[in-house]
Amino acid sequence: MKRFVVRLLINSVALWLTTLIVAGVSVESYDADDTLATVLTYLLVGLIFGVVNAVIGNFIRIVAFPIYLLTLGLIALVVNALLLLLVAWISELIGFGLSVDGFWWGVLGAIVLGLLSWLIGVLLRPIMGRSR
């Protein structure tokens, strides 16, 4: 359970930093004036991102393994961008959350989000434990 909460926090903080860095990726809170509402929105979008990445992302990576080999992994940029766009679509159905301006903003956002998640994960590895 501790690992799940830490991963959720990593995704949420990385998403927040991504919205600060990438102009085409933003998160719209249901109450922009309330700080707690904004934090809860980032946590909810981080949860949606984690679930989509764990379930659909892993399925796509398994099914498309030959394409990953053929393109030397470059297809991962497209897959991650599409997963980010899927999270934006799901959060749009809720009425608030992630907004991505287009496919190429999704590619850039996915790259930045992946790098930030990795960096924060490396920094928090002693908290999460070594077993993976």
UniProtKB/TrEMBL annotation:
Transmembrane domains' residue ranges:
39-60, 67-90, 102-124
Which parts of the chain are coiled coil? Answer: none
**Keyword Mitochondrion in record:** no
Recite the UniProt keywords alphabetically. Answer: Membrane, Transmembrane, Transmembrane helix
PANTHER family in alphabetical order: SLR0284 PROTEIN
The protein's name in its UniProt record:
Putative membrane protein
